TrEMBL record:
Belongs to the MoaC family. It comes from the Bacteria. Catalyzes the conversion of (8S)-3',8-cyclo-7,8-dihydroguanosine 5'-triphosphate to cyclic pyranopterin monophosphate (cPMP). Homohexamer; trimer of dimers. It catalyses: (8S)-3',8-cyclo-7,8-dihydroguanosine 5'-triphosphate = cyclic pyranopterin phosphate + diphosphate. It holds the Pfam family MoaC. Keywords: Lyase, Molybdenum cofactor biosynthesis. One of its GO terms (molecular function) is cyclic pyranopterin monophosphate synthase activity. This is Cyclic pyranopterin monophosphate synthase. Its EC number is 4.6.1.17.
Amino acid sequence: MTDQLTHIDENGDVRMVDVSQKADTERVAVAEGFISMKPETLALIVEGRAAKGDVLACARVAGVMAAKKTSELIPMCHPLNITKAKVECAPVTDGERADGRVGIHVTCTCGVTGKTGIEMEALTAASVACLTVYDMCKAVDRGMEIVDVRLLKKDGGKTGLWLREE
C-alpha cells in the first residue's frame, strides 16, 4: 500500500494513473450497500406489489449496467473490460441487523483480467442498485436511507488480497 495519492502528480495536478507497464492479473472486488426503509415498503417489494414492477430485478440490472459505466462517471477511473458483474439483493427483516433496520442488502462482485483494480466498479454497482430501489419506491417511502456502501474485499494485482475487518 502506498502512502501517496496516486491520482495527484508531483505538481499537485489531478491525473489518470499510467498503468501501461503493469501486468495483467485476475482481479476481483466485492462491495455492499444497504437501503433501509419502512417495513411496509419492504413488504411491497418482497410481495411484488410495487407500482413500478419488480424492484429487485431492476436493481440487479441497474447495478450491472452501472459497473459497466463506471469510467464514464468517475473522472480518473480507467475503462475496464469487465469479465464479471453480479449483483445480489437480499431483503433484511426485523432482528437481522444490529441496528434493527429493515430493508435491502446489496452485494456486488465484479471481476476483470487487467492492469488495474475493479473496486470502483463494485462500489458503483452497489450504490446504483440501492439508488434504483429508492427510485422505484420513493412514492411510498421518501425516508429511505442508503447506508454502509463499502468495499468488503479486493484481490489481485501487486497488493494482493485485502479483506474488510469487522
